[in-house]
Amino acid sequence: MQISEDLIKQITNAVMTEMQRRSEDPCVSSSDCASTAASAPVPSMAGRDRINPEKTDYSGYPKAAQGSDPKEVVIGVGAAFQREIQKTICGIPLDDVLTNVKAGIEEEGMNARVVKILDTSDVCFMALEAAKLSGSGIGIGIQSKGTTVIHQRDLYPLSNLELFPQAPLMDLATYRKIGQNAAKYVKGEQVVPIPCTNDPMSRPKYQVKAALMHIAETEQLDPENGNIEWEGK
Q1: What is the chain's percent helix, strand, coil content, to nearest 5?
Q2: pLDDT tens, 70-114?
């Protein structure tokens, strides 16, 4: 991903400095402190108009087809997946993420197909679009930073089957289990939801990087080309 570590550190330091000031300054909520707040460091992209100067051209890729295989699970990946962004927010290679999700699906006897979602960067809508394209009606959405959702085509966008919001705490074993659970939904088997680890400190620790990764993903959206078939290249 074309986001320098210096940029992340610069913005993170500004945010953490402001958070520390607010916790230590008893008058921070008072109108007397307005001038202090106004002079606090403001996170920025250091004058950049875009994180990635160039946008990938997907005009030559085949449009994602409506599936007819009742054993199919469609994996919908983000617009920057494996191109502008190569690793999740905690550094897991996206190649390995995709390999493990597909392996989990196939271990349950189902078939995996990968589609790149180019008209939204919201993981719930990504997963729903994947589910609508899937022959089985079950889909998985994976943002490039690692956040993942299992969805079903006849549900509302936010009424998903399973949500895995804390990408910094996910590992490859979890991604494999996600693939397995998605396949079990297809088979109509009883599914035990995958436990989600929770760490209240992960948000302040990763929020700057998460925001920059989301911007980088959103910059690559291409609604005119819609969703395309993607083989993880």
Answers
A1: 40, 15, 50
A2: 999 999 999 999 999 999 999 999 999 999 999 999 999 999 999
Rounded distance between C-alpha atoms, residue 49 and residue 170, angstroms? 31
What is the C-alpha to C-alpha distance for residues 176 and 148, in angstroms, rounded to an integer?
A: 12
Give the global pTM: 0.81
Longest CA–CA span in the chain (Å) reads 65
DSSP string, 16-37: HHHHHHHHH-TTTTSGGGHHHH
Residue 90: CB atoms within 10 A of its CB come to 16
**d(C-alpha 94, C-alpha 86), whole Å:** 6
Is the pLDDT assigned to residue 176 strictly greater than 60? yes
Helix (H) or strand (E) holding 175: helix 172-187
- Cβ 156 vs Cβ 179: under 8 Å: no
CA 184 – CA 162 distance, rounded (Å): 13
Q: What is the pLDDT of residues 177-201, one digit of tens each?
A: 999 999 999 999 999 999 887 777 7
Considering Cα of 104, then 163, then 5, then 85, what sign does the dihedral take? Answer: positive
